[in-house]
Give the backbone structure.
Amino acid sequence: IAKYPIHNLTRISATRKQHSKTTNSPTVLAFGNPTPTKIDLPGAEIEAKTIVEKLSGKHLIREKATLASFKTESSGFPLVHLATHGCFQKGGCPGVGLEENTILFANRETFNIADAALLGLENTDLIVLSACQTAMKADSNGEEIAGVAYLFERAGADAVIASLWNAEDGITKDIMVKFYKNVKEGMTKVEALRQAKLGYVRENIHPFYWSPLILIGDGSAF
């Protein structure tokens, strides 16, 4: 990462033809800290608000971060940001009360990633799963997250950012805010994420804290 931007490919993103991009900053639909929840995510709430301040768009936080809004509004935004709990490990995540491959929304409603094709994401450049508990077990090889990205790509999204293990709420917030600042300045998705992490590399912060967020799919500009 100190020398090169890195992104990962699924079998869909490896063969998909890139479409022409606009030069305008993308609009974002950001969900943050849906309530009630077993584990509060105050950083996620700040994250969603700050992202919309950086870019134009709409944020839905706490009780307004509903599954119905996700289903009906996601297709209208090129960038969808989910700062909430998610579970992508086999056997589920009892600590946050989630079954395997689900994302938490307000009123304890959940969305199963297997239903992503119903969202109509053909115009979506990026789905961000900026969740504290998008967690992998210690012996995971990353196949679970690759599977999640594959389902979103099959639904039409160009790329996915997700976490390989439990991400620290505050650092995740800071990385994502820097990422969107870089996007607004015109960087490609993959370079924007790289630059957002490099400060931690220079400060010799342990990779455990800054490295779990990865980009899967099209790393080009919006």
Notes: Residues 28-217 form a domain with the Rossmann fold fold (CATH 3.40.50.1460). The chain has a mean pLDDT of 87. Residues 69 and 135 are 25 Å apart (CA to CA). The first helix runs from residue 42 to 54.
